[in-house]
Amino acid sequence: MTIRTERTDVRPDEGLDARLVVDRGTFRLDVALTAAPGEVVALLGPNGAGKTTALRALAGLTPLTGGHLRLDGTDLDRTPPETRPVGVVFQDYLLFPHLTALDNVAFGPRCHGVPKAEARTQAAEWLERMGLAGQATAKPRRLSGGQAQRVALARALATRPRLLLLDEPLAALDARTRLDVRAQLRRHLADFEAVAILVTHDPLDAMVLADRLVVIEHGRAVQDGTPADIARHPRTDYIAHLVGLNLYRGLADGHGVRLDSGPVITTTEELRGPAFVAFPPSAVTLHRDRPTGSSARNLWQCSVAGLESHGDQIRADLVGDLPLAADLTTVAAAELGLHPGAEVWATVKATQTHAYPA
């Protein structure tokens, strides 16, 4: 399934309008992408999906084998990377180790012909904006991970790009620094007036930083929408896993969805035709014996395939009538005597499922 990712309210002379086709051996990227000025779009997907190839194609570092690339109405297909109005923040930042933070930021304007003194003045203003005025004379080895990330962002923004590309910008940070820098980055992106494209495999980064998500799998866009829409209506197993849902596809006939594998899931929504049905692992209640008198409309016999810690809970991987994940407390898991191979009954109330057209 290929989804064209576009907005109908974007004028042809504004923002990004691209179809990125890149052939690399047996892998083919074919993604159509549009974005309006001021919009932050996250390309989300598993490793090897084609996210970084898409970013490199936008930057001009990987040539297109087909499609087109227009920015603010100008064709960039054959424009050299160094002359494109594009700023890039790479995963490892690529700061020049022999230059100070100030001169790293000034490098961009200097490459665009700005005189040295003016470029350094602009760089100082950007460092001030990033809260890094006190690190202007520091070289990269003296900067923390969060500071280096902000210097790299300042260097990209100092050229006043019409397209800002961020490749896993928080991946090199530890958990605590990541939390702080994510909040700072969100503020800076909110002030950015051109198009920003963020590449990440971290759903939290995507949900917090982006206005819109484009999910790429196997070189194709499989879903796009707002973070809330993606989280509530996943359309592939990968997305469902990211947002923590059990997801199934089948044929709806009223309040039941018959899955391709056979079982029927009862829902509160009334649908006809191909449909998805989803529910969170926390909606699953486990019993060692077949429950009697339960109000749950969905009941399946399963066995425990595996157990793992999941935050402050235990996640049970179940197989049987319906493969699913169930979350329960450590105490509940102990009381049920759960272990790999244990037979259980799983129940889910219809009110805790969510069905929508496929």
UniProtKB/TrEMBL annotation:
<dbReference type="InterPro" id="IPR015853">
    <property type="entry name" value="ABC_transpr_FbpC"/>
</dbReference>
<keyword id="KW-0067">ATP-binding</keyword>
<keyword id="KW-0406">Ion transport</keyword>
<keyword id="KW-0410">Iron transport</keyword>
<feature type="domain" description="ABC transporter">
    <location>
        <begin position="10"/>
        <end position="243"/>
    </location>
</feature>
<dbReference type="GO" id="GO:0016887">
    <property type="term" value="F:ATP hydrolysis activity"/>
</dbReference>
<dbReference type="GO" id="GO:0015408">
    <property type="term" value="F:ABC-type ferric iron transporter activity"/>
</dbReference>
<keyword id="KW-0500">Molybdenum</keyword>
<keyword id="KW-1003">Cell membrane</keyword>
<feature type="domain" description="Mop">
    <location>
        <begin position="293"/>
        <end position="357"/>
    </location>
</feature>
<dbReference type="InterPro" id="IPR003593">
    <property type="entry name" value="AAA+_ATPase"/>
</dbReference>
<dbReference type="GO" id="GO:0005524">
    <property type="term" value="F:ATP binding"/>
</dbReference>
<keyword id="KW-0547">Nucleotide-binding</keyword>
<keyword id="KW-0408">Iron</keyword>
<dbReference type="InterPro" id="IPR050093">
    <property type="entry name" value="ABC_SmlMolc_Importer"/>
</dbReference>
<dbReference type="GO" id="GO:0016020">
    <property type="term" value="C:membrane"/>
</dbReference>
<dbReference type="Pfam" id="PF00005">
    <property type="entry name" value="ABC_tran"/>
</dbReference>
<keyword id="KW-0813">Transport</keyword>
<dbReference type="InterPro" id="IPR005116">
    <property type="entry name" value="Transp-assoc_OB_typ1"/>
</dbReference>
<dbReference type="InterPro" id="IPR017871">
    <property type="entry name" value="ABC_transporter-like_CS"/>
</dbReference>
<dbReference type="InterPro" id="IPR008995">
    <property type="entry name" value="Mo/tungstate-bd_C_term_dom"/>
</dbReference>
<dbReference type="InterPro" id="IPR004606">
    <property type="entry name" value="Mop_domain"/>
</dbReference>
<dbReference type="GO" id="GO:0015689">
    <property type="term" value="P:molybdate ion transport"/>
</dbReference>
<protein>
    <submittedName>
        <fullName>Spermidine/putrescine import ATP-binding protein PotA</fullName>
        <ecNumber>3.6.3.31</ecNumber>
    </submittedName>
</protein>
<keyword id="KW-0378">Hydrolase</keyword>
<keyword id="KW-0472">Membrane</keyword>
<dbReference type="InterPro" id="IPR003439">
    <property type="entry name" value="ABC_transporter-like_ATP-bd"/>
</dbReference>
<dbReference type="InterPro" id="IPR027417">
    <property type="entry name" value="P-loop_NTPase"/>
</dbReference>
<dbReference type="Pfam" id="PF03459">
    <property type="entry name" value="TOBE"/>
</dbReference>
